[in-house]
Design brief:
- It catalyses: [molybdopterin-synthase sulfur-carrier protein]-C-terminal Gly-Gly + ATP + H(+) = [molybdopterin-synthase sulfur-carrier protein]-C-terminal Gly-Gly-AMP + diphosphate.
- GO terms for molecular function: ATP binding; molybdopterin-synthase adenylyltransferase activity; sulfotransferase activity; thiosulfate-cyanide sulfurtransferase activity; ubiquitin-like modifier activating enzyme activity.
- Catalyzes the adenylation by ATP of the carboxyl group of the C-terminal glycine of sulfur carrier protein MoaD.
- The longest helix has 20 residues, at about 190-205.
- An 8-stranded mixed beta sheet has the order 3-2-1-4-5-6-7-8, with helices on both faces. Strands 9-13-12-10-11 form a 5-stranded parallel beta sheet, covered by helices on one side.
- The chain contains 13 helices and 13 strands.
- Helix 10 (about 285-290) links the parallel strand 10 (about 275-280) and strand 11.
- With about 375 residues, the protein is of the alpha/beta class.
- The protein folds into 2 domains: about 5-250, 3-Layer(aba) Sandwich (Rossmann fold), CATH 3.40.50; about 265-360, Rhodanese-like domain (Oxidized Rhodanese, domain 1).
- The protein has helices spanning about 5-10, 15-25, 35-45, 80-90, 105-110, 125-140, 165-170, 180-185, 190-205, 285-290, 300-305, 325-335, 350-360; strands at about 25-30, 50-55, 95-100, 120, 145-150, 150-160, 220-225, 230-235, 265, 275-280, 295, 315-320, 340-345.
- Helix 3 runs parallel beside helix 4 and helix 3 (about 35-45) runs parallel beside helix 9.
Length: about 375
């Protein structure tokens, strides 16, 4: 144990050397290395968590840097999981870090969750949170929830010591379209507050001092406009579709977020479509930093107030954004006004860049 490194926390009677030993022997899997995962990972590594796992399929975008403080400008375009792991190890080389450049699927959850003590949620959609919850209950792991939007943040702990699960709070995904940070915006410092809160919850759960009470059974809500805090009690629902059955009966499912009945196409699919009209729905500053040659610009912000892209009558329309989220929303809106075939480009501009890079390397 690195005595000097952790001296400022081991001097606290609530932590002490026994608590530090517990931290060094613990393991945490962070699902997502974005706005929530970034601060959580840094503080968990600094605190001396013995083993940290990081799973994230995404690549670093310049727009991430406003809140994803684990990354630097020279990391743009690289794997979030890989760079986050390198940053964590540079902060504390005395811990073990494993990274998984992948999407959390039921198969991945089945493989990874049993290997970690606590799961931290750094995701931004209901489908991923439901998968985390169901897998955590199935494998008997507490998980620490976080959510941010605009100036608002939430945190809680689920499935800790027979406490309620996420589905006790949200039995099903809301029918209304819930925007993510890329669509609705977020203050970076809000992500920091919630991510740090998640890290603190993990430290308190692991050290288990009698003075610590986790957020199990509580939803902690912060409005940073006024700095008002509210806490909502969550009761375990014995009719909950997950809590009410045996763990072995839990079937893990995951449906990636979609948008209405819009179909997605991959980069390779583009060659099979006739008379394609590519529409870039990112904002002008993103377009200026790079775009697909031959595409037209019509930002989502303009589409949502009724502007329609300037397209020829017989074209097959393919909309793209940075990652394929905003383009689904834009496609649904555009489809209200036109009858032509319309698609969203899966993976967006990031996927196109990767395709072009791979194509260059193969030649």
């Amino acid at each position: 144990m690195q005595t000097d490194r952790y001296s400022r926390q081991t001097c606290l009677p609530e932590i002490g050397h026994d608590g530090q030993k517990k931290l060094s022997e613990s393991s945490i899997l962070c699902v997502g290395a974005g706005g929530l995962g970034s601060p959580a990972l840094l503080y968990l590594a600094a605190a001396g968590i013995g083993k940290i796992g990081i799973i994230d399929f995404d690549r670093i975008d310049e727009s991430n840097l406003q809140r994803q403080i684990i990354f630097s400008s020279n990391n743009v375009g690289q794997s979030k999981a890989k760079i986050a792991a390198e940053r964590v190890l540079s902060l504390n080389p005395h811990i073990t870090v494993e990274y998984y450049d992948a999407t959390l699927t039921p198969a991945m959850a089945q493989s990874l969750f049993p290997a970690y003590d606590i799961i931290i949620d750094g995701t931004d959609n209901f489908d991923a949170k439901f998968l985390i919850n169901d897998a955590a209950v199935k494998f008997g792991k507490p998980w620490i929830y976080g959510s941010i939007q605009g100036f608002d943040g939430q945190a809680s702990v689920f499935n800790d010591k027979d406490g309620p699960c996420y589905r006790c709070l949200y039995p099903e995904k809301p029918k209304a379209n819930i925007m993510n940070c890329a669509e609705s915006g977020v203050i970076g410092a809000v992500a920091g507050l919630i991510g740090v809160t998640q890290a603190l919850q993990a430290i308190q759960i692991i050290t288990a001092h009698k003075s610590f009470s986790s957020l199990s059974g509580l939803l902690w809500m912060l409005d940073t406009r006024s700095m008002q805090v509210r806490t909502l009690s969550i009761r375990k629902n014995m009719q909950c579709k997950i809590c009410s059955i045996n763990r072995d009966e839990i079937i893990l499912n995951y449906t990636p977020p979609s948008c209405g009945s819009i179909s997605e196409v991959t980069i390779s699919d583009l060659n099979t479509l006739s008379d394609v009209c590519l529409i870039d729905v990112r904002e002008e500053n993103e377009w200026e930093n790079g775009h697909i040659e031959g595409a037209l610009l019509c930002p989502l912000s303009k589409i949502m107030i009724g502007e329609t892209p300037d397209i020829t009558k017989n074209s097959t329309i393919v909309l793209y954004c940075q990652k394929g989220v905003r383009s689904l929303q834009a496609a649904r809106k555009v489809k209200e006004k036109i009858s032509q075939p319309i698609f969203s480009l899966s993976g967006g501009y990031d996927a196109w860049l990767k395709y072009k890079t791979d194509e260059t390397q193969n030649h």
